[in-house]
């Protein structure tokens, strides 16, 4: 029988240990690391099931309250594989602390020398739990505690080798050091607590036992024989009589129920396929079938790798390889659905009524705002979430992007964009994930893999999609360019009518630039509406037009053109060509400017504010052109009338002079006539000058009245126009 390893304070260890004094406790979560149930610093390396309080002097002798033993595994393994085997059993390689414990270990290992000694080493056969990797020649255990007791052979010299071994006879109980690489393979001594409280408990998953204790085992070893796994109540795992494998023996029915064939003398730790050799004893399966079973010493919050290594359960399927055999990232399908699942059928609501659909929509930005066609091209991303209580999920993580599911495997809602221009809608591929919102369900030990299971009624499916689509926007441009537009994006759930499927929680946010080229983005809101018995989400985007561009490119130039045309009223009356050309040129420039503005605006059946302004400016300048023409024509007509009057008066005087010539033939009469003519001519000039002055005064009065009239009209229009515009501004 195996002898326990005891500290020096124990008098004489019991030569045989066959049973435990009390049944072991069930597996539990691992205690804090590096603790022990004793306060001794002479204790062997840490065991995960123990608690210790450390002492600043690690090698003083104190009374122990626990016993330990060595389990010898008669199978050659490399140093790293040996250490891993002990760690899988929640143990560590044995490191004798005293001469007595060294002798006991040597005696326990002697029966296996023929099996344990490698062909490439003449003296070594058993690994020990010491190393000098930190400092050459300074030997410590794996926790860094310096060894006070060593038992090296006389020929030992400090080298760069870093691992301890025990030597075969005649080097009785002596040690040596060898390389820690894969050069040598020797047998493995693992240290185990003997107390029922701290003893390692191994659990076998996949047995379908109602009594959980029936699948629990402890290590047991008789003197000179290979270790076996003794069950708490019903089963035993040991090497079969024919050798070359392991068998699961039912003590209640007194028969072997399953076998695990192996040809390398490996132990059944980890996940393996067992062959059933009896009918309906394991999971109601027939003889000849196979069943995957997992045996390990892992805690309830640890995952068992294929080779029996234990890793944190949260590391299962986290996209990072943690197991030596990569099995923690194998079989990571998140979805667990029943065989009768119908992906074409809308799930029933968790609460009475239609299935609740939650929408979270983010507007990423605007590709284009086409004012002419009244189209708003939006880059958006939305997430639809719902619960499908028919489903279950495995190993969900708090980071939702890891919890990916194939879209075509489950029911997903179909969304229609009601007011989108469908030929130009571009969408990315769908991404379906599961959000972890609840703790996992209780573990099911009938499953060979320790996977966390989550209910579909508590953890939502999340459908993510990005869309670039032009949406029609019915813009109201009466107050353009001082207008505010409210564009709507209509998303309809088209998979089912509102009696079966309805929006419940709606959230929308805007992540793009606030100030665009022509607009300032205001509030973005969402509301639930009903259209044709379908549930519709109405997203409203408020856009405030940035009018300063139009103010500086339209209003200011038109005012300047009107001032230029107004300046023509101050030109001299005689310079008719200049006055007319000034007014006409400004009219043509204004019309070209208005045409340019109009080409970028949609055609509407109503008049826009900018149209009213431009129409007034055109009319304002056009009337000046007409005014100058009318004034010029009036002056010309008045001048013609005056000229005819002067010509008729001149002819009358000429007839009188001719009669006088006939009557007076004397030289004196001729002399008298000359002065008369000279006197009449000045009289006619004075009359003409007076008439011209009167006409000029009349023309000046007309110009002054025109200046005053145009000024009053402009100011009156401007006041009325801006009052109406400002009253209709929606900010």
UniProtKB/TrEMBL annotation:
<feature type="transmembrane region" description="Helical">
    <location>
        <begin position="708"/>
        <end position="729"/>
    </location>
</feature>
<keyword id="KW-0406">Ion transport</keyword>
<dbReference type="Pfam" id="PF00059">
    <property type="entry name" value="Lectin_C"/>
</dbReference>
<feature type="domain" description="C-type lectin">
    <location>
        <begin position="72"/>
        <end position="180"/>
    </location>
</feature>
<dbReference type="InterPro" id="IPR023415">
    <property type="entry name" value="LDLR_class-A_CS"/>
</dbReference>
<dbReference type="GO" id="GO:0005886">
    <property type="term" value="C:plasma membrane"/>
</dbReference>
<dbReference type="InterPro" id="IPR006202">
    <property type="entry name" value="Neur_chan_lig-bd"/>
</dbReference>
<feature type="disulfide bond">
    <location>
        <begin position="317"/>
        <end position="332"/>
    </location>
</feature>
<protein>
    <recommendedName>
        <fullName>C-type lectin domain-containing protein</fullName>
    </recommendedName>
</protein>
<feature type="region of interest" description="Disordered">
    <location>
        <begin position="1"/>
        <end position="67"/>
    </location>
</feature>
<feature type="disulfide bond">
    <location>
        <begin position="305"/>
        <end position="323"/>
    </location>
</feature>
<keyword id="KW-1133">Transmembrane helix</keyword>
<feature type="compositionally biased region" description="Polar residues">
    <location>
        <begin position="1"/>
        <end position="17"/>
    </location>
</feature>
<feature type="disulfide bond">
    <location>
        <begin position="298"/>
        <end position="310"/>
    </location>
</feature>
<feature type="compositionally biased region" description="Low complexity">
    <location>
        <begin position="35"/>
        <end position="66"/>
    </location>
</feature>
<keyword id="KW-0732">Signal</keyword>
<dbReference type="InterPro" id="IPR036719">
    <property type="entry name" value="Neuro-gated_channel_TM_sf"/>
</dbReference>
<feature type="transmembrane region" description="Helical">
    <location>
        <begin position="609"/>
        <end position="635"/>
    </location>
</feature>
<dbReference type="InterPro" id="IPR018000">
    <property type="entry name" value="Neurotransmitter_ion_chnl_CS"/>
</dbReference>
<dbReference type="GO" id="GO:0005230">
    <property type="term" value="F:extracellular ligand-gated monoatomic ion channel activity"/>
</dbReference>
<feature type="transmembrane region" description="Helical">
    <location>
        <begin position="578"/>
        <end position="597"/>
    </location>
</feature>
<keyword id="KW-1015">Disulfide bond</keyword>
<feature type="transmembrane region" description="Helical">
    <location>
        <begin position="547"/>
        <end position="571"/>
    </location>
</feature>
<feature type="compositionally biased region" description="Pro residues">
    <location>
        <begin position="23"/>
        <end position="34"/>
    </location>
</feature>
<dbReference type="InterPro" id="IPR036055">
    <property type="entry name" value="LDL_receptor-like_sf"/>
</dbReference>
<dbReference type="Pfam" id="PF00057">
    <property type="entry name" value="Ldl_recept_a"/>
</dbReference>
<dbReference type="GO" id="GO:0004888">
    <property type="term" value="F:transmembrane signaling receptor activity"/>
</dbReference>
<dbReference type="InterPro" id="IPR002172">
    <property type="entry name" value="LDrepeatLR_classA_rpt"/>
</dbReference>
<keyword id="KW-0407">Ion channel</keyword>
<dbReference type="InterPro" id="IPR006028">
    <property type="entry name" value="GABAA/Glycine_rcpt"/>
</dbReference>
<keyword id="KW-1003">Cell membrane</keyword>
<keyword id="KW-0472">Membrane</keyword>
<dbReference type="InterPro" id="IPR038050">
    <property type="entry name" value="Neuro_actylchol_rec"/>
</dbReference>
<dbReference type="InterPro" id="IPR016187">
    <property type="entry name" value="CTDL_fold"/>
</dbReference>
<dbReference type="InterPro" id="IPR016186">
    <property type="entry name" value="C-type_lectin-like/link_sf"/>
</dbReference>
<dbReference type="InterPro" id="IPR006201">
    <property type="entry name" value="Neur_channel"/>
</dbReference>
<dbReference type="InterPro" id="IPR001304">
    <property type="entry name" value="C-type_lectin-like"/>
</dbReference>
<dbReference type="InterPro" id="IPR036734">
    <property type="entry name" value="Neur_chan_lig-bd_sf"/>
</dbReference>
<dbReference type="Pfam" id="PF02931">
    <property type="entry name" value="Neur_chan_LBD"/>
</dbReference>
<comment type="similarity">
    <text>Belongs to the ligand-gated ion channel (TC 1.A.9) family.</text>
</comment>
<keyword id="KW-0813">Transport</keyword>
<keyword id="KW-0812">Transmembrane</keyword>
